[in-house]
């Protein structure tokens, strides 16, 4: 399959487990989590009600192990890319 065919079919040549978020991208939380971990130098666990499912934030840092530091209106938290999706214009 050529690169043009892959792009047309929605498939990418990225390895499994990789993600396509960059610093500054707007992302949306998919689901409520049992707790939130702050992105501070000395992280703390915070209650999950600080960020609602569907809330939009901005990626402020990319960390190892598919973790992103995301700035929401009530703080910056470390989240797995599995719990995020790219925000749309309507979000």
Question: Could you list the spans in which at least 5 consecutive residues all have pLDDT below 50?
Answer: 1-17
The global form is globular
The count of helical stretches stands at 1
- Secondary structure category: mainly beta
Q: What is Rg?
A: 15 Å
Average pLDDT, all residues: 84
Instruction: Report the helical percentage.
Output: under 10%
Major sheet description? 7 strands, antiparallel
Order of helices and strands: HEEEEEEE
Beta-strand segment tally: 7
Approximately what portion of the residues adopt beta-strand conformation?
35-45%
State the strand order across the main sheet.
3-2-6-5-4-1-7
> Could you give the distance between the termini?
34 Å
Record keyword descriptors for this entry.
single chain, 91 residues, mainly beta, 7-stranded antiparallel β-sheet, 1 helix, 7 strands
Structure, briefly:
The protein is mainly beta and 91 residues long. The protein contains one helix and seven strands.
Describe what this molecule looks like in 3D.
Mean pLDDT is 84; it is low at 1-17. The protein has a domain at 28-85. The radius of gyration is 15 Å and the shape is globular. The termini are far apart. Helices cover 8% and strands 35% of the residues. The chain is mainly β. The protein has one helix at 3-9; strands at residues 26-29, 36-38, 45-46, 56-63, 67-72, 75-80, 84-86. Strands 3-2-6-5-4-1-7 form a seven-stranded antiparallel beta sheet, with no helix packed on it.
